[in-house]
């Protein structure tokens, strides 16, 4: 199966947000990746509920919401109402991860778990069958435009082995520093979804850049 491409709206032009959303709608991209940062879990604040609501209103593709916030349980119901199809919480931000996953699914969303670069794959051994998506951070979360951490390849292979050993159907998403240079190797290591922010929105022709990424991973 072809790897999915999820442009990260964090790198869009917020003064022309509807234009950039329509660009993604009309491109070969598969998902919208939406980064919500609270300035506590990560040292940056991105945008919140009203902006997500506006994005969901125009988006015609899956809305994949990546929460980089502490205590995400407080907002699960709210994010469901704002149009999130997939809700990803950070492993490092959840005291009762199993309960959080069930709460996300109870609201009709797919449940994702993101792992920081230092967080070991083995910590998901007891929950992998309950997780629809694992988002492997290939940069330290908080900012777009950072360099890809090479150890990610090793983690993708470990995660793929864990998923297969448990007979789970969990998707593997890679987030941070994705470009045309690492897309193919990531697919071959086992990635199902590639998030790309600055590489797509910083390009002269974002539609063509998305198309190139799709070709590389097809
Ligand atoms: C980082 C975010 C990423 C970011 C990726 O904290 O989770 O989704 O937008 O941006 P690039 O592709 O520029 O590394
Ligand atoms: Zn993200």
Automatic annotation (TrEMBL):
Gene: rpe
UniProt-listed GO biological process terms: pentose catabolic process; pentose-phosphate shunt
Binding, substrate: 8, 66, 142-145, 175-177, 197-198
UniProt binding sites for a divalent metal cation: 33, 35, 66, 175
Record carries keyword Lyase: no
Top EC category: isomerase
Catalysed reactions, semicolon-separated: D-ribulose 5-phosphate = D-xylulose 5-phosphate
Enzyme Commission identifier(s): 5.1.3.1
Biological source species: Cochleicola gelatinilyticus
The protein's name: Ribulose-phosphate 3-epimerase
GO MF annotation list: D-ribulose-phosphate 3-epimerase activity; metal ion binding
């Amino acid at each position: 199966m072809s790897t999915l491409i999820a442009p990260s709206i964090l790198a869009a032009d917020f003064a022309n947000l509807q234009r950039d959303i329509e660009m993604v709608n009309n491109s070969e991209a598969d998902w919208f990746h939406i980064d919500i940062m609270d300035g506590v879990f990560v040292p940056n604040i991105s945008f919140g509920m009203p902006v997500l609501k506006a994005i969901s209103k125009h988006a015609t593709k899956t809305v994949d919401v990546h929460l980089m916030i502490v205590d995400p349980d407080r907002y699960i119901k709210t994010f469901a109402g704002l149009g999130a199809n997939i809700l990803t919480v950070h492993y490092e931000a959840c005291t009762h991860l199993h309960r959080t996953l069930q709460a996300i699914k109870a609201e009709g969303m797919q449940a994702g778990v993101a792992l920081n670069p230092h967080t070991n794959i083995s910590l998901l051994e007891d929950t992998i069958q309950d997780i629809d998506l694992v988002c492997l951070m290939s940069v330290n979360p908080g900012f777009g435009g950072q360099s890809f951490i090479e150890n990610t390849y090793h983690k993708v292979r470990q995660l793929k082995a864990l998923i297969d050993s448990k007979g789970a159907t969990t998707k593997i998403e890679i987030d941070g520093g994705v470009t045309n240079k690492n897309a193919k190797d990531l697919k071959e290591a086992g990635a199902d979804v590639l998030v790309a922010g600055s590489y797509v929105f910083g390009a002269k022709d974002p539609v063509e850049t998305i198309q190139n990424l799709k070709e590389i991973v097809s």
